[in-house]
Design a protein that fits this description.
Helix content of chain A: 10-25%
Structural class of chain B: mainly alpha
Order of helices and strands of chain B: HHHHHHHHHHH
Oligomer: heterodimer
Number of helices of chain A: 9
Strand content of chain B: under 5%
Distance between the termini of chain A: 54 Å
Number of strands of chain A: 33
Shape of chain B: globular
Largest sheet of chain B: none
Strand content of chain A: 35-45%
Number of strands of chain B: 0
Amino acid sequence: MKTMENENIIELKHVTKVFADDGYKAVSDFNLEVKRGEFVTFLGPSGCGKTTTLRMIAGFDIPSSGEILLNGSPITDLPPYKRPINTVFQRYALFPHMNIHDNIAYGLRQKKTPKDVIDRKVRHVLDLVDLAGFENRRVSTLSGGQQQRIAIARALVNEPEILLLDEPLGALDLKMRQEMQIELKDMHDKLGITFIYVTHDQEEALTMSDKIVVMSEGKVQQIGTPEDIYNEPKNAFVADFIGESNIFNGIMTGKMKARFGGGEFTCVDDVAEGTHITAVVRPEDITLTDPEHGMVRGEVTSVIFKGIHYEITVQSGKNEYVVQSIKNAKVGSTVGMVIEPDGIHIMLAEDHTNIFFADFNEKFRLAYNGKEIPTSVTRIIPGSRRLEDGTLVDAAGETVNPERIRVKIAIRPEDIEMSDDADAGLVEGNIANLIYTGDHYSYVIHTDLEQDFVVNDEYLWNMGDRVSLIMPVDKMTFTYSRK
Amino acid sequence: MKNEILKRVFLALMLILLYLPILILAVYSFTDATNIGAIRGFSLHNYVTLFTTPELTGMIAGTLALAFGSAAIATFLGTIGAIGSFYSKKRVSGAIGLLNQVPVVNADVVTGFSICILLVVVLGVSKDTFIPLVVGHVTLCAPFVYLSVMPKLRQLDPSSYEAALDLGATPFRALTQVVIPQLVPGIISGAALAVTLSLDDYFIATYTKPATFDTISTYVVNATKGSQTTIKTALWALSTVIFAIVVLIVVLMNVRSARAEKGVIHGEDK
């Protein structure tokens, strides 16, 4: 009974997963609709929550909140063995004490399928994965690629409504991986089963999927077709993660005119003049010419031969461009660069202003992370003053109790300085993400107080580096509210 | 060169120290000597006595029944204990592991004595029920079973259990059809260890056994103090038989594992 409304085989609604033992929020407010027969890929770096989401669909993890619907009815709390969903595990998880036939037959036996039906189905599915006649082999005698096919066969033989694949090709070598990508795609087209595939490999995602869900830090960054995601990335993270990109911060200077990366360019996105923007330019969309004809000029700093093309790095003032060209260039020479309007993708700049909250301590001092911020109550609450008996009154003369005041502090990413001296700054954390944006790096620092700070710095730090964040008090903006 | 000779001499000395006492006993068990020292002639009468005296055969059968019985209980408890601990939260699992370590290193005298105090004195269980003895031996063996099953659980692919659930197995079936079969080598070596430990035990048995029952260990200690020479010399035969069985088992196990290794290499060649 398929109604128009119920075309979605599976729906995730506001799904959030917080792990009880360490309070880690792996997935937050995940929303997705998958149509019957689609090939959907969850793509993102490790730790982005893609595997946790898959495990919630399989039933191994239960969402902390939100709902999962299968064919319109909720399955959020249903145990895995009651779901018509099967999984291909990252490291296959074949049962080593059973032969290949028994491995594949395991799911059918749980359903008390008659023996002759089992035998026929096992033979059929072994044919499908090109391993006919392997029934009596032991798992340990199979190569990685063969084990992978058996794992797929073991899941498919149950004729699931949805097949989940958790980085199934991660353990295979490059050539085998590319072959299996094509085979999996063929299998999907032939069987018409819905595939949900998890990978961190953007090429794999682009090759195989009907729909890609790009994830980062537990949140969906963009959902779209491979073409959409590649050509129209929604934010700097997606642009940086999918393919090679040059990412610049800039501003709109007129109708379809933008200034970034040391030049002014015509683009195809109509964004209001004066808007802060992030511009993405793919390396293959930049053409090298002689300096006179370039929209921007720069000096070639490195040339790497990549087989089909050269990857050329050009330094133009404070900005760095990566260019793909089939023509060679000489290191040290000056070149011009041309970018056609449709090669420029404009996104509204995300406001990266860091916001955090602080309280007054018993000495009426503003404190964060147990450290005092050298400012005064009267500066935070304009017009306030202290009366002779020590009570605080605001501009209107009303008494203010500092213990009941919550202060919101805002500071721009470029105003924070990073230091490797643990005590130098207000709070310490580890670098969780970094993106190069033309003339500086944009870092995300995950602090010990579980907050993410965005910091811009022109020097290169490494992922995972432990840094202390120095925030000058004169760069902070304070607003306050009563608790 | 000189070093080479020294090495060989040292090795020979060690082997003599290890095996000579048993060999002497074995040689004497086949004679009609009543004391170590004077050999008069070859005789099998020690073996005849050993297998025909009801007191001796009963004692041996009792010891074996105790060993296999308590090993079976200990294997069951140790295995499900290890599985439970392995799938518990880290802190719980760590605590169980630590608590399991204590009886392993604890002196058997202390274990035997405290079980005797708890069951017989405090709870008033009669020793004649065999309950204190069996409880004592299970207490002795179960921690070792736990220790030999644990490494197999760690080797287990963590997705194995989830894969079974995914294919439609209930948690109980996943455990019995997928998890436990993969632990079998660990369970078998744990059970073998349990049998050996029970056979070896002296202290726990002396504190907890019924007055009329003897294990080989307690019997041997009493007999060597006594004056019945036929029984004493029959025990030489018993020692020889036990030694021969142990040698046989060790050789068989080595041959089997050598074959298994070869099998694996063969398999990968294909």
